[in-house]
Amino acid sequence: MKKSRSYILISFLLLICVQSCREPEKPIYYMSQEFKDYVDFPVGSWWVYEDSITGKIDSLTLTYSQYKILDNDNDDYQNEDLYQKFKCGDSVLTVLSGCDDLARCFLIGNGFKSIIYFFQSESGSSYFQPYNIEIISNSDTMVINGYEYYDVVCIRENRITGKFFYWSKNIGLVKIKSESDNRQLKSYHINN
Questions:
Q1: Distance (Å, whole) CA 59 – CA 71
Q2: Is residue 42, in this structure, part of any structural domain at all?
Q3: Which of 3, 11, 49, 114 has a 20 to 30 A CA-CA distance from 144?
């Protein structure tokens, strides 16, 4: 009887020891639905832009979209990321959207003649230092090419270019503005 109690006690202590040696699980931070309403669209959706300075037409078609949970060894948390690819003429625009432990959600894309940005913060912060971008305004409506867009957020990239990016809820990027670039949404289709 004493032997069986000893075995049970030793087994119990070993179990506790093994459990205490395991790394604690990292929390997972998810993008807010409010943020997703500006950047997450079904594959097959497309947007056509016209540059009012040059008259050039550009188009984007969403060809790939996948959510992943990213576990970065350098961070003490995991985060939900959205990877997207857009066909842009003969090239591909690759976009990453994610969030961090400070409730900041961001989008960065490279390949549409420049880097594009979007950013939201549930904490009320209007500046995102890693990408040097800030929220300039939230508008109820904005008229572009005779069409009204609602819930428009304006983001300014504060580096050399000083570009402005205008995003409309449930539509996506509606305008890019700088001294040499004034692309405006001409038409679009959100696939269902």
A1: 33
A2: yes
A3: 114
Q: Decide: 127 and 144 in contact? Cβ < 8 Å.
A: no
What residues does 90 pair with on adjacent strands? none
Single pTM value for the model = 0.80
CA distances from 62 to 21, 47, 92, 111, 128 (A): 45, 9, 10, 13, 26
- Whether 77 is covered by a domain: the verdict is yes
CB–CB of 133/109 below 8 Å?
A: no
In the chain, the number of structural domains is 1
Q: Is the pLDDT of residue 43 over 90?
A: yes
In the structure encoding, which two tokens stand for residue 128, read together?
């995102």
